[in-house]
Amino acid sequence: SRPCCIEALLAEAAEPGTPARPCPCPLPSGDTALSRLVRRLLSARRSLDLCLFSFSCPQLARAVQLLHRRGVRVRVVTDAQYMGMHGSQIGRLRHAGIQVRHDQHSGYMHHKFAIVDRRMLITGSLNWTTQAIQSNRENVLVVEDAEYVKAFQDEFERIWEEYDPANYRFF
Amino acid sequence: SRPCCIEALLAEAAEPGTPARPCPCPLPSGDTALSRLVRRLLSARRSLDLCLFSFSCPQLARAVQLLHRRGVRVRVVTDAQYMGMHGSQIGRLRHAGIQVRHDQHSGYMHHKFAIVDRRMLITGSLNWTTQAIQSNRENVLVVEDAEYVKAFQDEFERIWEEYDPANYRFF
């Protein structure tokens, strides 16, 4: 989608009920692909499981940190080669106290999915980068069918255990 | 999936009814993620629409060429920056007479989906490269729900028209 402002969305999620002050920035704040994604993430009440090849979009990182502060159990799995790239938000999430695990293979951990409250699967071609959101042709599927959600949740749990730091072999 | 041999699958699709000679190569030829993907592609009878960021896997290119020779209408949309990369199969498909169109933007055409007979959607994180198939953690969803198939088919038709060479601006 085009560059857009999601400050009002984040402010409302941070302090529900308080009318959000309009953001003074010149970017449009209407309905965009990014705002729809953020709304779905912010609907999390209990858990958010993220399995993301690359995560460098600061706005999405703020939404994730906000959920963490709100008490939602956030777990992140990411790719070892990409998590240290310039602009990666992974360090910021770790500093905020969010649990992050990564692969230790030469291949990529190339998934790009999120599961909200073990109920809603958000998956597709989209890496969580500003370039992908603003410039690429991408698809994002939002699915609540239990059959699909379970397949991805099972894969998440498998990877989460496999990438447990206790299993690291490079120490 | 692990490296595997799909010669028997391709031979059977090329000459249905003829018992395939066992391939003398040492690779396993059992049920793998790649063989399951190839089987679904080879089930095409009328059309195959491919919208792929990168396509360098020679085995998948052979399956696509086989369908083209069998009279299936194959259309390919791909990314301009990646189609000329070392190992890309796009030139080979064009030489075989398959219609290929590409974007002309700085952003990526980052989709990775296929639609078989306007009926079955195959989508996910998987680029059609040997590295992705053999070494990465990837997901591929196979969906026949009309609602999902239609959304992707509509996007395909939109992109197909938008990337019509008659619209190129760089001549």
Automatic annotation (TrEMBL), chains A, B:
A Gene Ontology biological process term: spermatogenesis
Residue ranges of every copy of the PLD phosphodiesterase domain listed in the record: 105-132
Main location: mitochondrion
A Pfam family the protein falls into: PLDc_2
Catalytic activity: a cardiolipin + H2O = a 1,2-diacyl-sn-glycero-3-phospho-(1'-sn-glycerol) + a 1,2-diacyl-sn-glycero-3-phosphate + H(+)
Any one annotated GO CC term: mitochondrial outer membrane
Protein keywords: Differentiation, Endonuclease, Hydrolase, Lipid degradation, Lipid metabolism, Meiosis, Membrane, Metal-binding, Mitochondrion, Mitochondrion outer membrane, Nuclease, Spermatogenesis, Transmembrane, Transmembrane helix
GO molecular function: identical protein binding; metal ion binding; phospholipase activity; phosphoric diester hydrolase activity; RNA endonuclease activity producing 5'-phosphomonoesters, hydrolytic mechanism
Topology in the lipid bilayer: Single-pass membrane protein
Stored InterPro entries: PLD-like_dom, PLD_domain, PLipase_D/transphosphatidylase
Localization of this protein: Mitochondrion outer membrane
Gene3D superfamilies per record: Endonuclease Chain A
Membership in a protein family: Belongs to the phospholipase D family. MitoPLD/Zucchini subfamily.
Name of the featured protein: Mitochondrial cardiolipin hydrolase
Protein's gene: Pld6
